[in-house]
Amino acid sequence: MRKRLIVSAASALSLFLAVPASAADFQPGAAGIGDPYYPTYGNGGYRVSHYDIRLKYQPATDELEGTTTILATATQDLSRFNLDFALNVSEVRVNGRPATFATSGEQELEVTPARPLAKGSQATVVVRYKGVPSTVKKYGFTAWLRTPDGAVAAGEPESAWWWFPSNDHPSDKATFDVSVQVPDGNQVISNGILTGATSQAGWTRYSWRENKPQATYLATLAVGKFDISTDTTANGLPVYNAYSKDLGDNADAARSSVERTGELVDWLSGYFGDYPFSSVGGYVPNVPTGFALETQTRVFYSPRQFSKGANTSVVVHELAHQWYGDSVSLSRWSDIWLNEGFARYAQFLWSEHENEGTAQELADYVYASHPADDAFWSVKPGDPGADNQFSNAVYDRGAVAIQALRNAVGDEKFFRILKGWPTERKYGNATIPEFQAYAEKISGQKLGDVFNTWLFTAARPAVGPVAPGAAAHASPAPGARADADRGDGQQLPVEPKSWKKIQETNSVHDEAR
User: Fold this and answer.
1) pLDDT tens string 249-267
2) What is the pTM of this model?
3) CB–CB of 64/56 below 8 Å?
4) Under a CB-based contact definition with an 8 Å cutoff, are residues 398 and 337 in contact?
5) Is 117 helix (H, G, I), strand (E, B) or coil?
6) pLDDT-derived band at 38, boundaries 50, 70, 90
7) Which one, of 360, 354, 400, 358, lies nearest residue 377 by Cα?
8) What is the rounded distance in angstroms from the CA atom of residue 254 to the CA atom of residue 306?
9) Buried b (16+ CB within 10 A) or exposed e, 39-51
10) Which helix (DSSP H) or strand (DSSP E) does residue 267 occupy?
11) How far apart are CA 61 and CA 404, in angstroms?
């Protein structure tokens, strides 16, 4: 039942006065969110709380059509705002009214609502679109991967542009509903929980929901024919894994690795605290790429990650990201160490667990492997630059930095930091200085020298990550066996047994962009 709204003259006047007196008070939102590594990525003037993505996809032709509804709140008086998107748009509505729109730059969709948006107001933005994503390249590349029976959307630092309009920066996280209609016989994989699958007239619609905040680059989509396995962890967490039916020689190695997801997430919970999401799992589509990506709750793995056999180390790496990178996300891309250093260090911890080399032995090996003139040391993990964002130094030197922190504060405080940080910052964003401040609070120590030496100095530290009570060394102790000459006359310590498997994961993000 509708009731008539009776507004007094005084009330009407107050409503009128609440609106800025001049259109000049409204300004366009910025075309970028302000990240120095990627100045055009993301947008200013609003924050997104939810994406509702409804798609129809034809695998045979790669034709995609969709409607995405975005719930957003204006953070300034907005006359116009931008979205990041690459496909052809046919209609945009803001709060139910047709909006004008135009494209600019590589991925900017400029939207001018019929009525400007006042600061603090909520807006419902509906975008209708279609296209053939595999034919669209931006900045010379595509994050849309075709497979023999469908397609996959996965990439870092961007992948959303090819399938939904967004505020594409990890500092603006939102919840997601993804619903995709595909011809019968195909399946759809995405983040979170599968909430429904219904068929009608030769098409099946799959609906997925991720109810915790998620960065746009962590949203994933895969369409094809998969073997699905479902289970629960020992703690009752739903596990959903999927494998393309045509993985060939890599199929068994992939399964024997990814099927350990439940076990490994429970093991990681002992270090990082309660798992932060409502489901977990991974999928291995038949793609020619070599990278893996920590897409939230549903990790993407390329088959090549398992071309040398099973590799639980890469599964540990990507699952560690569910805490370090997904639940606690970087505030700007220069903070990438908060993601990759800790995911690599989780592999060090797994090596300890498997008795294949301690974290200290691995850190010593990394330090000894790279002489002072090695370009490895020219990359600063705490601010590597966009070109070196996924350099091995961010991973390996980044993990050594964490071992140096462990040695500086001692195990008891270190493991409190390791678990407390993702618990305190759950579902939020953070910077390296904020992590340093947290580590100093828990440890009661000033840690500037540790962070500056290992993260922000473009040179080999004079002393390695020394364990308490041990002497620094870059070569074996007298009488110890050495594995190889590193190239400058110095011999390496014995190579930890886990090292090769850890290094096999170095392509985790090599081709993600």
Assistant:
1) 999 999 999 999 999 999 9
2) 0.92
3) yes
4) yes
5) strand
6) very high
7) 400
8) 6
9) ebbbbbbbebeeb
10) helix 261-272
11) 52
